[in-house]
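I'll show an entry:

:::
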Amino acid sequence: MGAGGPNAFDCSGLTQYAYSAAGVSLPHSSRSQSQMGSPVSVGNLQPGDLLFYYSPTSHVAMYVGNGKMVHASTSSKPVMVVDFNSMSGFTHARRIAG
């Protein structure tokens, strides 16, 4: 298990923590999170959608709108907001709520 916050996060700990604040329970695993909700195309992304990377899935980020995502690359680095296209290895997106 990695870092689940609030002082440090790994990628799935950050998304788990964010969704927990909204009353939605997610597992602390990017691979498990990648199976939840419903698929969404890049053209239909909405804030809160989860973005998954690599095959097999080993990283998750959250879309925040305007072509940006928030993610925690490792528990030793701060949470960052970056351009969605700044990271390679994107495989798919899922809408957990809504």
